[in-house]
UniProtKB/TrEMBL annotation:
All copies of domain Lsr2 dimerization, residue ranges: 1-60
Gene Ontology MF annotations: DNA binding
Gene3D superfamilies attached to this UniProt entry: Lsr2, dimerization domain (3.30.60.230)
Superkingdom, natural source: Bacteria
Residue span of region Disordered: 53-136
Biased composition (Low complexity): 85-109
Name of a matching Pfam family: Lsr2
Biased composition (Basic residues): 110-119
Composition bias type Pro residues, residue spans: 68-77
Listed InterPro entries: Lsr2-like_dimerization (IPR042261), Lsr2_dim_dom (IPR024412)
Record protein name field: Lsr2 dimerization domain-containing protein
Basic and acidic residues bias spans: 120-136
Amino acid sequence: MVQKTTVTLIDDLDENITEDVQTVTFAHEGKTYEIDLGAENRQALDDALASYKAVARKAGRSTTSPSPGAPVSPPTPAQSASGLPPTASRSTTAAASPPTSANSSTPPRSSHRHLNCRPRCREDTKPRGTEGRGVH
């Protein structure tokens, strides 16, 4: 059996069927909206917002999660190292970092680390058959 799926792109504003429909996302009064618009209606929206955009300040990214299927941009180099935005304060960064010893930049060793060591790592245990060979 053969199945054929047809996707019809419809402009949400005037309900015209057209190939150049794209989803436009915008925010107003704290709410984010999406609308599917053809080229003419996208241009009309851009023209209507042009004078407002010319004097507006760009806001940071919204804290809402992206819609399913939306592309996710990779973290910036400053974010990828620590997982925090570059504007995070030192106290925020320190709180999110693993603990470090007072005079070292490396994390303190676990006091139980020796429990994971195999018996031949300890000085008091030698592998069988190595007596007198200087192997520990």
